[in-house]
């Protein structure tokens, strides 16, 4: 069945001002020496952003994203590519439109406009990733770059664990027995942010372990995975721990499908339950033996008994009241809007910079319309990933493993996002859209 949406898009391109601008400089493209290497240049720009992300300021990342946006606009004007729009692209486009509507109806339009501009830069970054990362060599180059950078970041985090580090904020309940436990933050300044940043490195590291050819490369992949997992543990981030479990389970189930035909009927049926059972036994044993881990895990279930839990609950109550007053289009985008409206609803002594859940922050910012479209992006991405995994399995193409890794990483980041909003920070948000870009780059509307 042809799922192409090319006819409506072709009509739009012929009749709209923006549509007519696509390919406006197409006659110049074949004669341009620079644009003959457009995909390599795009990969270099993406790589520069990945290299600098953990170490640079938000302003610097913004400058690089502006450069990426400018290059994407140049490519769009100069080169017309057919069969590039997927269902993922369309859902993201409509989500962007909903963000514009949210800004238009925001009580703080100027502040929301600033958030909209930042959000638009992320989406253009996705568009560029989706344009080039279907090419194996560029994908391998980008993933290898990120994995090596993550190794530096996690290595420094582990060093902090052993030498000790002064917390930059009160990340642990001061009345808890765990109050003196070190929570590492490496170069990112926040343990929850560090945990989220390293999650995709675990998934892509597992993919590299499978796909990298030589023994030295596989040994490096093992080091990357083990180091990143250890550093995530040392962050003490409960959300990152839960995300790591969700990531691992997703990867395990997908690999069981990928290699299922090579397994005996017994292992095909029992491999996943046996591994899950063994992991559960390991966790239970660790909870019994390691007191700091036990106290940290049990704090998840203490409701208001833990100060971090209590803080989030009070913030969530205020957020629900804000959502009640701005249900359709939300309050507008960005932390500037939140910081000005939240004090009108907050409970005494519970100041906050965000709603501490992306699945509350998105409907708060863009209303029912925005969260519906965001869920559409997730469904389209997961559906597209599953379809391509099946296709690549039949063709025995290794790109399927990278898509499995991206899907597992997305599950991990979404799981952490249930309890935190570090997802909105550029170090993680760029990774999120890069992962979706990898999947979208392999999902073409002309697939049958």
N-to-C CA distance: 5 Å
Count the DSSP helices.
17
Secondary-structure element sequence?
HHHHHHHHHHHHHHHHH
Q: Report the sheet-strand fraction.
A: under 5%
User: Structural class of the helix and strand makeup?
Assistant: mainly alpha
Radius of gyration: 23 Å
* Portion of residues within helices: over 70%
Stretches with pLDDT under 50, minimum 5 residues: 1-7
Reported for the largest beta sheet, the result is: none
Number of domains: 1
Protein name: Inorganic carbon transporter
Membrane topology: Multi-pass membrane protein
GO cellular component, one term: membrane
Main location: membrane
Can you tag this structure with a few keywords?
448 residues, 17 helices, 71% helix, disordered N terminus, single chain, mainly alpha
SSE diagram, text form:
Blueprint: H1 6-15, H2 17-21, H3 38-52, H4 58-78, H5 87-104, H6 109-132, H7 136-163, H8 191-211, H9 215-235, H10 238-258, H11 265-289, H12 291-298, H13 307-325, H14 335-341, H15 358-395, H16 399-417, H17 426-441
Helix pairs in contact: 3-4, 3-6, 3-7, 4-6, 5-6, 5-15, 6-17, 7-8, 7-9, 8-9, 8-10, 8-16, 10-11, 10-16, 11-12, 13-15, 15-16, 16-17
């Amino acid at each position: 069945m042809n799922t192409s949406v090319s006819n409506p898009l072709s009509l739009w391109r012929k009749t709209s001002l923006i549509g007519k601008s696509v390919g406006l400089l197409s006659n110049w493209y074949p004669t341009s020496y620079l644009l003959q290497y457009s995909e390599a240049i795009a990969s270099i720009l993406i790589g520069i952003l990945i290299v600098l992300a953990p170490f640079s300021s938000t302003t610097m990342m913004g400058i690089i994203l502006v450069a990426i946006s400018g290059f994407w606009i140049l490519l769009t004007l100069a080169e017309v590519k057919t069969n590039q729009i997927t269902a993922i692209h369309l859902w993201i486009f409509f989500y962007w439109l909903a963000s514009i509507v949210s800004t238009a109806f925001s009580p703080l339009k100027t502040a929301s406009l600033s958030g909209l501009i930042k959000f638009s830069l992320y989406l253009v970054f996705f568009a560029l990733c989706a344009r080039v990362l279907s090419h194996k060599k560029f994908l391998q180059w980008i993933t290898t770059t990120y994995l090596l950078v993550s190794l530096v970041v996690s290595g420094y985090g582990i060093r902090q664990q052993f030498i000790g580090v002064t917390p930059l904020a009160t990340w642990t309940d001061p009345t808890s027995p765990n109050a003196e436990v070190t929570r590492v933050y490496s170069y990112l300044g926040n343990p929850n942010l560090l945990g989220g940043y390293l999650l995709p490195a675990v998934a892509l590291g597992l993919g590299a372990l499978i796909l990298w050819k030589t023994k030295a490369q596989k040994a490096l992949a093992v080091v990357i995975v083990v180091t990143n997992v250890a550093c995530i543990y040392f962050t003490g981030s409960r959300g990152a721990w839960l995300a790591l479990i969700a990531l691992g389970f997703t990867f395990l189930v997908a690999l069981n499908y990928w290699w299922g035909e090579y397994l005996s009927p017994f292992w095909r049926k029992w491999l996943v339950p046996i591994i899950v059972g063994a992991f559960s036994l390991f966790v239970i044993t660790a909870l019994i033996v390691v007191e700091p881990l036990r106290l940290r895990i049990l704090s998840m279930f203490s409701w208001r008994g833990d100060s971090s839990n209590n803080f989030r609950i009070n913030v969530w109550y205020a957020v629900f009241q804000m959502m009640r007053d701005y249900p359709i289009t939300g309050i507008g985008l960005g932390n500037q809007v939140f910081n000005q409206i939240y004090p009108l609803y907050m409970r005494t002594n519970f100041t906050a910079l965000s709603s501490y859940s992306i699945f509350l922050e998105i409907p708060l910012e863009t209303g029912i319309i925005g969260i519906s479209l965001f869920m559409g992006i997730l469904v389209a991405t997961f559906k597209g990933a599953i379809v391509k995994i099946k296709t690549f399995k039949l063709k025995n193409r290794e790109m399927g493993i990278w898509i499995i890794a991206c899907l597992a990483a997305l599950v991990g980041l979404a799981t952490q996002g249930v309890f935190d909003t570090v997802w909105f920070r550029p170090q993680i948000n760029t990774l999120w859209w890069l992962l979706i870009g990898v999947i979208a780059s392999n999902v073409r509307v002309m697939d049958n």
